[in-house]
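Course assignment 3, question 2. Fill in each field.
Student: A.L.
Task: Predict the tertiary structure for the chain below.
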Amino acid sequence: MDFSGWEKLSLVDYDDNLTTTLFMAGCNFRCPFCQNSDLVLHPEEAPKIPWEEILEYLKKRQGVLDAVCITGGEPTLMPDLLEKMCEIKALGYKIKLDSNGSNPELLKKAAREGLVDYFAMDIKNAKEKYPLTCGLKKMDLSKIEESVSFLLTSGIPYEFRTTIIEEFHDEEDMKKIGEWIKGAERYALQLYIDSERCIERGYHSIPKEKAERFLEIVKPYVKHAKLRSYE
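Answer field:
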């Protein structure tokens, strides 16, 4: 299966690493505020980037680039993801894997095989609001809970992150999320930006003053919490 999007150089996707970012088309969620509607809603129409083209680029950039970020969509739906990650690691790159946490089996296997240097998992909302926030009528949260538990104990660097939105999140939700991920190493509250690429338009970002209140609520539960893109 091919990737459908490619940002050849990113300075923001993986800490201070010079990173190339690969986007997979397709997702099992329909979060209405998702910024990648083209990849999520119509994956069959998304462009296909030949894997050999990506590999050739990575070979030429050895010693220049530090890492590869794999994101989506939901990249854990890619049938040959682990094989591609093996090829990337063989070239000496670090790998950051973004996920919604719906495939804990793959996360665990990638960790066992030494294929991931950093996990980033979305925490969409407090548990009772998960289906609403994911754009689903109902869902089984057991896989999400399993992924959270795994990351909390895996020993591999990771972060949890929540894109905070007026229509979906309040202070009580932040408290419940904090209790859920208690003991986490890193947690980021991310600014939402309404754009034409969103699955649905018209949602509103949380003002910085309110986001700072959210941050104070979650800080007691996690070791390092921060706002992202609120500068």
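Instructor remarks: Residues 5-228 form a domain with the TIM Barrel fold (CATH 3.20.20.70). The longest helix spans residues 142-153.
Grade: pending
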